[in-house]
From TrEMBL:
Name the UniProt record assigns to this protein: U3 small nucleolar ribonucleoprotein protein, putative
Molecular function as annotated in GO: rRNA primary transcript binding; snoRNA binding
PROSITE patterns from the UniProt entry: BRIX
SMART domains linked: Brix
Listed Gene3D superfamilies: Probable brix-domain ribosomal biogenesis protein (3.40.50.10480)
Keyword Transmembrane assigned: no
Species for this entry: Eimeria tenella
Pfam families: Brix (PF04427)
Domain (Brix) ranges: 88-196
Keyword line: Ribonucleoprotein
GO cellular component, one term: small-subunit processome
GO biological process, one term: rRNA processing
Family annotation (SUPFAM superfamilies): Class II aaRS ABD-related
Length: 196
């Protein structure tokens, strides 16, 4: 597990260094663009860094840029890097010592989400839970909290480095609370996903 954590840290730092290089390149592109528009001579820092051929190449690349590619992208923006290659795996759990209503709500959420595993948390603390999820290859962790038996908060965290989103739940209505249920609706059957 230490090797995996070290590898993930190296990948993270490598992505950060690539972002920094892209940011510096974007700044140089912007300086070249401004000097070409104003007709001023090339700044000395660019003259020292690159020859006139490099500036010409940057000008050619600048012609190919559109508004979306002018701004450098970060690794945080690349949440679909593994889309189509690897399916996300989701872990769904509750706060410690959940009520029966919260457990029922989590069961229903588990039916809605594809590739979702429900984990009975027991007395596992959050740090241990995160280490367990990282070591088993889980990409997202969903935590559902309650207040007096009502589900009130949903925390969605993308592993291993985030981001984390907090949502407030209100007016939660479970399937067995609905006044008119279809006669063939069972508790363990997935709902039709084409309706969602």
């Amino acid at each position: 597990m230490l090797r995996r954590t070290a590898r993930l840290r190296k990948e993270y730092l490598f992505r950060k260094s690539l972002e920094e290089k892209e940011r510096q390149l974007a700044e140089r592109k912007q300086q070249v663009k401004e000097t070409l528009e104003t007709g001023k001579p090339l700044p000395t820092n660019l003259r020292a860094a690159a020859a006139a051929a490099a500036a010409a190449r940057l000008a050619q690349v600048l012609d190919l840029d559109d508004p979306q590619t002018l701004a450098p992208k970060t690794h945080v923006d690349d949440e679909y890097a593994y889309a189509g290659v690897e399916d996300p795996s989701i872990a769904l759990t509750t706060s410690r010592s959940p009520s029966s209503r919260l457990q029922q709500f989590v069961k229903e959420l588990n039916l809605l989400l594809p590739n979702c595993r429900r984990i009975n948390r027991g007395t596992i603390v959050l740090d241990e839970l995160l280490q367990l999820c990282r070591s088993s290859g889980i990409t997202d962790l969903l935590l559902v909290h309650e207040h007096r038996g009502q589900p009130t908060r949903l925390i969605v965290s993308h592993l291993p480095h985030g981001p984390t989103a907090h949502f407030t739940l209100s007016g939660v209505c479970l399937r067995h609370d609905l006044p008119e249920r279809a006669p063939n609706m069972s508790q363990d059957k997935n709902p039709r996903r084409d309706c969602l």
